[in-house]
Amino acid sequence: MSGDPDILMPPEGVPLRFPVAGVGVRIGAQIADILITGFAALAAILLLAATDAVDGRWLGGIAAALFLFVRVPYYVLGELAWNGQTLGKKMMKIKVVAHDGGPLTTHALVLRNLMKEAEVFLPATLVLTLDADHLLSSLAALAWTVGAVLVVVMNKRRRRLGDLMAGTYVIHLPDPLLASDLSARAAPRPGGAQGFGFLSHQLEHYGAFELQTLERVLRVEEQPARDAAERARRDEVLAAIVERIRARIDHADPIPQAAHLAFLRAFYTAQRAHLEQKRMLGETRADKFHRGPGT
């Protein structure tokens, strides 16, 4: 079950609301990642055993070490390469984000995943190897594991200790399929006074994540404002979004307030078409922090 929706404040200054990933879906992603890394470590162990490269008495210790050396780089490099996602997170449609809405840093991802070793894997290993000779240490590990789980359950953003230290948390991804009817309604009138055009390089700055957010803003605009105060707040949000987009895509001409909504609808349509064309060519851009080939 997911947590309550949380507000993410990106550098653009417009608050975004996304559902926090709950404990269950994160455990599901964790299980998938453990199976993937465990299979890779097992394959390496079987290869060593088949070649008689090591003494069979040492295979247990080597297996544990290999699992560690496969697991840590897998989590860190996966979340770096796929913008906060491992294969397990991709399956469960969740991702890691920075609490301030900025790009994920290597330091933050290394820290949160090294802490996972201390929070989860090391104590879980001690618990699973529980025996009478080491009962005290195993019970201490069990208490530590329960405490780590309680930290996640009892805070609003479902952050574990590694997230608290790294300044990250995990959210559900929005549906990657955008509503076609909104795109059709958003199309600008060619040659009209409020028609806008965008060059291909101006559409390379954003991805599906931001386009989903813009879609939500446009859907809100389809509903009548309840009063003048709400209309004023909406106008402020539209103005902030327009100026951030203009600055990011280097759109030189100022946009008058009366044309803010038309500009955003035109940009939405052009950006959507651009992303869908790239998807057909086998290229995907998850968000504005996406690291494509050669970047």
Task: Assess the beta-strand content as a share of residues.
Answer: 5-15%
Distance between the termini: 36 Å
Largest pleated sheet: 2 strands, antiparallel
Tell me the number of strands.
Answer: 4
Number of domains: 2
Number of discrete helical segments: 10
Order of helices and strands: EEHHHEHHHEHHHH
Overall pLDDT score: 77
Approximate helicity band: 55-70%
Q: Tell me the overall shape.
A: elongated
Q: Which residue ranges are poorly predicted, with pLDDT under 50 across at least 5 consecutive positions? A: 176-181, 183-194, 291-295
Mind telling me the C-alpha Rg? 24 Å
With strands numbered from the N-terminus, the spatial order across the biggest sheet is 1-2
Structural class: mainly alpha
How would you explain this protein's 3D organization?
The chain is mostly helical. The chain folds into two domains: 168 residues, no CATH class; 101 residues, no CATH class. Helices cover 58% and strands 6% of the residues. The protein has ten helices and four strands; from the N terminus they run ββαααβαααβαααα. It has a two-stranded antiparallel ribbon. Strands 3-4 form a two-stranded antiparallel ribbon. Strand 1 and strand 2 form a beta hairpin. The longest helix has 29 residues. The chain starts with a strand and ends in a 15-residue tail after the last helix. The C terminus is likely disordered.
